[in-house]
Design brief:
The complex is a heterotrimer of chains A (277), B (98) and C (289). Chain B is built from two helices and five strands; from the N terminus they run ββββαβα. By secondary structure, chain B is an alpha+beta fold. Chain B has one domain: Ribosomal Protein S5, domain 2. Chain B has a five-stranded mixed beta sheet with strand order 1-4-5-3-2, covered by helices on one side. In chain B, helix 1 packs parallel to helix 2. Chain B is globular. With 289 residues, chain C is an alpha/beta fold. Chain C is built from eleven helices and seven strands. The chains are: A alpha/beta (277), B alpha+beta (98), C alpha/beta (289). Chains in contact: A-C, B-C.
Chain lengths: 277, 98, 289
């Protein structure tokens, strides 16, 4: 597990949103700013490590209670502010994702982190359904409950084509332990079974990504690379605005038609049988 | 992972119903039993435990020695004992005979 | 055994927990009105499990019934806890998403169709990792779309409980029904112990587990709506009640400010006592259904 978790997120938040000072009302682990993106304002959101968090289990960049509610608060505020705007003027919401996981703590379970996470996912999805283009930029790690809370409800997802990017349901070490394999065996399995892979290029084959981005070193991008990322995000916003407000693009893409045959078979069968039931 | 296929040409009695029993838990199995398409009985087994082909044949031979229905049976198995397999087959057979 | 505790009600009850997912889903519907969809004989199974030497199940552990509940159109979608821990794979997840989408489509066309989610699940199926995780995100999205038009009712009865990403689906539901045996949380005790150590959570402490995740606690602290006995008739009646109640004026997961303030008020200097938290949260004035 890379020690760099959270650093790339902050780097890209600063590049795209202009500065990374947290809001006074927010925990230091949540960065939120409305800044110009192209010709319109956009809300940028990022969760970063806060080693002084009053919740001990979020100090390495996990998404915990305060983080989830802060995200939900900012998103709902923007939904409210843009409520009377026509759809093309609802500001984009850009989630910069570099999260280690959800928080694994007793305080969190006691206080209902499942529900906190639900409020954030609800807020992101509600924004999307209201017409805001919601874009996720996976700048580092996107694991499990952390990604479900922050980023996975987006219209479009972008990720860097880089070894430092991991999108997955469980950390490699834990997954190896549970499946009774070595980490090397798990890597090999990932090449054969795309959904198990820790390689972002295999993730890209699942049809869930809008685009893979290129940067020699995503933590220290050149000006040209930043311009390309901006252009890609802009394209994602246009694409989101031209599509439906649901997540159906994830199984309707050309790539998904090849890898998500099970999903498509289910949807076709259920639709056919539903009418007659 | 093994796939086993067996046929029972002597099992020709018309069956008109279908039945499903069981859950594929660890050490358990499910049986799907429905009318055959060609007038005799066929069985397919998908099992996560390799090397028990003879045991499967023995259990199915025993089942069909009493049940002569022209059925298509599919089994998904996660390591059930022969006794458990026979029990599920008999439950499925009973369900279609009612 | 104290014979005076064996009331006729207790003796006559039919355990819901002892039923498999299919029987649980079926018992919620008005007699004779339900049909199973994409069932075992359709054989839409996991494309990923056999390649890893794991026996698939004909319905991939997700059972769908459509019919009437209390006279109103409804769909029930149940995860089978005994198959791969009720975990969400590509196919089982797609079944739940598609059923929610079709219920939403009918609802938008003027035929409000409630959805009942029977969540007996540990979360994402590890052997299908990224497709399972994507499926969970899609389920949550589709539940949020449907609940604008018709209630999404979650049942967590046990014994597996509702953990992992699927706990977010419970969190966005219109109403959540739990038994005392049922548990609801993002991470189970074993996972917390593995990731953060036994001092953080001793997974062998069953009393602690139920004090934090159990149905009585979740309902008592206001994060679930009904605490029911392990009784199929009572559970079916409770579901009927929520179908009849319809969409709530505001969903719990929309009330961010209310819950954010509650978290801000927590003293984190030591572990939180669940009983004290429940007392505090059930006493403070808040929006009730």
């Amino acid at each position: 597990m890379s020690e760099q978790v959270g650093l790339r997120g902050r780097v890209w938040f600063k590049i795209l949103a202009g500065n990374d000072t947290p809001d006074n009302d927010d925990p230091k682990s949540v960065l939120s700013r409305t800044a110009d993106f192209g010709s319109e304002p956009a809300l940028f959101l990022c969760v970063v490590p806060d080693e002084d968090s009053r919740f001990p289990c979020v100090r390495d960049g996990q998404v915990g209670l305060e983080e989830a509610y802060a995200l939900a608060t900012h998103i709902r505020k923007v939904i409210g502010e843009d409520a009377d705007e026509p759809k093309p003027q609802k500001r984009p919401i850009i989630a910069i994702v570099d999260v280690k996981s959800q928080a694994y703590g007793r305080r969190e379970e006691t206080a209902g982190i499942f529900f906190a996470a639900a409020t954030a996912a609800d807020a992101y999805a509600s924004a999307r359904m209201a017409g805001h283009p919601v874009i996720s930029l996976v700048a580092g790690h996107a694991f499990s409950g952390g990604f479900l809370t922050h980023g996975y409800q987006a219209n479009r997802i972008l990720a860097f084509d880089d070894a430092g990017i991991t999108i997955h349901a469980m950390h490699k070490e834990a997954a190896a332990r549970i499946t009774l394999r070595s980490v090397a065996e798990l890597d090999k399995l990932g090449h054969e079974i795309a959904p198990m892979s820790y390689d972002v290029r295999d993730y890209a084959r699942l049809g869930l990504l809008f685009r893979l981005l290129h940067a020699q070193d995503p933590q220290n991008p050149t000006a040209d690379e930043v311009a390309e990322v901006r252009a890609a995000i802009a394209a994602a916003i246009v694409d989101a605005r031209s599509g439906t407000a649901d997540l159906s693009n994830r199984w309707k893409s050309d790539v998904a038609r090849r890898t998500r045959k099970g999903t498509l078979a289910v949807r076709a069968a259920l639709e056919a049988q539903w009418m007659n039931a | 992972m093994e796939h086993i296929e067996l046929s029972y040409p002597e099992a020709k009695r018309l069956i008109t119903r279908r039945a499903h029993v069981g859950v594929v838990g660890s050490g358990d199995l499910e049986v799907l039993l429905e009318p055959s398409r060609d007038g005799v009985a066929h069985v397919t087994v998908t099992t996560s435990v390799d090397g028990f082909g003879d045991a499967w044949k023995a259990v199915l031979d025993r089942f069909f020695s009493k049940f002569g229905g022209a059925v298509r049976i599919h089994i998904n198995d996660a390591g059930a004992t022969p006794g458990n397999v026979l029990l599920r087959l008999e439950q499925a057979a009973e369900a279609v005979e009612q | 055994m104290n014979m005076t505790n064996l009331s006729p009600e207790f003796l006559n009850r039919r355990s819901f927990i002892e039923l498999d997912a299919r029987a649980r889903a079926q018992c919620l519907f008005d007699q004779g009105t339900s049909t199973e969809l994409v069932g075992p004989f359709d054989r839409i199974e996991s494309p990923w499990l056999p390649r890893q030497g794991i026996a698939p199940q004909s319905d991939d552990g997700c059972i769908i019934f459509k019919g009437k509940i209390g006279g109103s159109p409804a769909v029930a979608i149940a995860f089978e806890g005994a198959f791969q821990g009720g975990s969400v794979g590509e196919v089982s997840g797609a079944k739940m998403t598609a059923a929610l989408d079709l219920a939403a489509r009918d609802s938008e066309a003027g035929k409000p169709t409630s959805a009942v989610l029977l969540l007996e699940t540990g979360g994402v199926r590890l052997q299908e990792a990224n497709l399972g995780l994507a499926a969970v995100a899609e389920i949550v999205s589709s539940a949020l779309a449907l609940r604008r038009h018709a209630p999404v009712i979650t049942i967590v009865a046990g014994t597996v409980g509702c953990f992992g990403g699927m706990s977010l689906a419970a969190g966005v539901s219109s109403y959540t029904i739990m038994t005392r045996e049922g548990r609801l949380g993002l991470n189970g005790a074993e996972v917390i112990e593995q990731e953060s150590g036994v001092d953080e959570f001793d997974a062998s402490d069953r009393a602690l587990i139920w004090a934090i995740h159990g149905g009585e606690q979740r309902v008592g602290m206001g994060l679930a709506d009904s605490l029911v006995e392990d009784d199929a008739d009572e559970i079916a009646a409770t579901v009927r009640g929520y179908v009849r109640a319809g969409v709530p004026a505001k969903h719990r997961s929309e009330q961010v400010e209310f819950y954010r303030k509650r978290i801000a008020a927590i003293d984190t200097s030591s572990q939180i006592d669940p009983a004290t938290l429940r007392q505090k949260w059930s006493n403070s004035k808040g929006r009730v259904r």
